[in-house]
Amino acid sequence: MAAGAGEAVVGCFRSMLAAVGLRGQPGAVEVQGSTGGMPGKVGDEGGPAVSHDLNIEGISKYFGPVQALAGVTFTVKAGEFVTLLGPSGCGKTTLLRIIAGFERSDEGHVRLGERLLDDLPANRRPVNTVFQSYALFPHLSVYANIAFGLRARHFAAAEVDKRVEFGLGMLQLDGLAERYPHQLSGGQKQRVALARALVNEPEVLLLDEPMSALDAKLRAEVQIEMRRLQRKLGKTFILVTHDQDEAMTVSDRILVMNQGRIEQIGTSSEVYEKPRNRFVAEFLGAANLIPAELVGPRTVQTALGMLELRADPRWERGTLAIHPERIEARRTPPKSNGVRVRVKDAVYRGDHVELLVEPGPLRVQAVPGINFEIGERLWLELPAERLEVLLD
Amino acid sequence: MSERRKIHPVVTMLALPSLLLLYLPLVAVAVYSVNSARIGLVWEGFTLRWYRELLHNEAMLDAARNTMILGLVSTAIATVLGTLLALGLARFPWPKPIARTLDVIVDLPVVTPDIIFAAAMVIAFSMLRSLWAGFVPGMLAMVIGHVTFQISFVALVVRSRLVLIGPTLMEAGRDLYASSFYLFRKVTLPLLLPAIVAGAMLAFTLSLDDFVISFFTAGPKSNTLPILIYSAQRRGLSPQIHAISTLIVILTVALVLGLERFTRYRKA
Ligand SMILES: Nc1ncnc2c1ncn2[C@@H]1O[C@H](COP(=O)(O)OP(=O)(O)OP(=O)(O)O)[C@@H](O)[C@H]1O
Ligand SMILES: [Mg+2]
């Protein structure tokens, strides 16, 4: 008994010593390697940053009767830029809040490398968040906002200064250090929020629709900037958005969510070109969905007529998807997969003409040049290699 | 601007007399406090004599001292307790129905008539006295009495500010490695400070001119200015009463003006 107690005291003493900062940074975040380095380099720790994969393992979350997340599982590789894409209310924010530690999951685990984060409070996770509303402290200057996370961990003043200056420079905020948040533009606030998170060198940066408050032009610039920054820092970024263009612009992989579930994970082109199911096909690029019935080898019957496929589908009855820009409109019959249709509506869009045709109805993007009259009959080619067979 | 233009001139013409009605008695008291006539309502010339006499009136000075001690001590206690109460109500994840009940309980003293509150206090104190004989009417009882109603006001002001600030800034602080204590010191407290100061000023103002509760809980040696004015008034109006009343009004107005400055909220 007594020996056990003695050991406990010694153990406690050791961890206290560690906490008080024999590593030079008292109260450093509890995951190893988290105090690694910004490229360039600010930290005085020496040695490269050790990064870990983020594992989300079967996370479920209930709010009363509402199931916000239903067994979400995926892995984000160290240094990867992943986007959570999905309609409003599908659980994106909830998932981010569980990773950040603001919310507890009812089932499942969050793991960084081997380390379980579930029981670690938000202030001890090597994870930082850029909030949708930025959540800058209104009573603190830009400098003090950016320094907050460093000062909270009692970094030496010189180190704080070095890192804040680095952050200000990295996000082109020089000269704004003494301003207060209410004296900043939306874009500037957004960059301060980003700097405030990044100077802590988190292993994982979470971004909850950080660009939704910016106008379209600024947003496009910031997206490219964000991508560049992430590449340069080599940190793991998880971005929430419900803008598919944004998701495609910035991410290595897109995670399409719906009603608390993951519908598909893949690179931009994978989820766009090879949607797994109707939801993904419609959510990304608004593909045409064509109900079909298997009638022979690689041949299906549809409302448009017989169509040939690349391979046999796994169902008897199911759905095909094809993007409007993958359909070719012409006045002469194509060699294969030709469909005879009538133009119901035609809208000139500058770089293309958007046709709505019957039967279907199908949406088609045709090259401008040929003038299609409303009511005109014409041929469509639905190339077999562009017809995606969905699972449902 | 356009809002203002919609107001009909008749409304303005009605508003002005009501303002006059509100402030005329106060102005009258102030005027008579510098009138050299000892009795009667006839103007006999300007003097500061009554204000000078106040300085030599022992009972008056005593009451002023009691009022200040009572106000400052009760305000200090109520500000701390009221702030903690507001924080506890807002932060703790109470289930919905309990949270609503607690809100009502906190707000109740604000709308309860003073006289009911005072009567309840008398009963409560006499019960306490059966436990501890030292619990006699006097300053201690008055402080407790004032604190009980001040807490609600402080909690109300602080809570509404907490709601305005929202949970996100606290989460941002947590996210940026702040311990609970650091978060409170560097985020919560600075953001709440205007509301805490405003709550304290409000509590002090309420204590300053409280008559009912003080009257019911006061002992023989703990007259406050409102009690003194009340009993002096019954013996006939004296210019000194006008003078002290004017001073109290000025102090109250100063506090209310200060309050307004502190309750403004600038969002980021
Ligand atoms: N604190 C809460 N209490 C009750 N229900 C909640 C709470 N937070 C979220 N929900 C519910 O959980 C579901 C997922 O919400 P969440 O905020 O994660 O959606 P989201 O994908 O971020 O949506 P948006 O794109 O609109 O931000 C929704 O049905 C929402 O109503
Ligand atoms: Mg959200």
What sequence of helices (H) and strands (E) makes up the elements of chain B?
A: HHHHHHHHHHHH
CATH top-level class of chain B: Mainly Alpha
Number of helices of chain A: 9
- Small-molecule components bound: adenosine-5'-triphosphate, magnesium ion
From the spread of the alpha carbons, the general shape of chain B counts as globular
- Determine the number of helices of chain B (DSSP H or I, runs of at least 4 residues): 12
Query: Structural class from helices and strands of chain A?
Result: alpha+beta
Structural overview:
The complex is a heterodimer of chains A (392) and B (268). Among the domains of chain A are: 50-126 and 202-285, Rossmann fold (3-Layer(aba) Sandwich), CATH 3.40.50; 289-389, Beta Barrel (OB fold (Dihydrolipoamide Acetyltransferase, E2P)), CATH 2.40.50.140. Helix content of chain A is 26%, strand content 30%. Chain A has helices at residues 2-20, 92-100, 142-152, 157-170, 186-198, 216-233, 244-250, 268-273, 278-283; strands at residues 54-63, 66-76, 81-85, 107-112, 115-116, 127-130, 204-208, 236-241, 253-258, 261-266, 288-296, 299-302, 305-308, 317-322, 328-330, 338-348, 353-358, 362-366, 377-381, 388-389. In chain A, strand 17 (353-358) and strand 18 (362-366) form a beta hairpin. Chain B has 268 residues and is mainly α. In chain B, helix 2 (9-32) crosses helix 12 (239-263), helix 4 (58-91) runs antiparallel to helix 9 and helix 4 (58-91) crosses helix 11.
Question: Could you name the key traits of this structure?
Answer:
heterodimer, A: 392 residues, Rossmann fold, OB fold (Dihydrolipoamide Acetyltransferase, E2P), 6-stranded mixed β-sheet, 5-stranded antiparallel β-sheet, 9 helices, 20 strands, 26% helix, 30% strand, elongated, disordered N terminus, B: mainly alpha, 0% strand, globular, binds adenosine-5'-triphosphate, binds magnesium ion
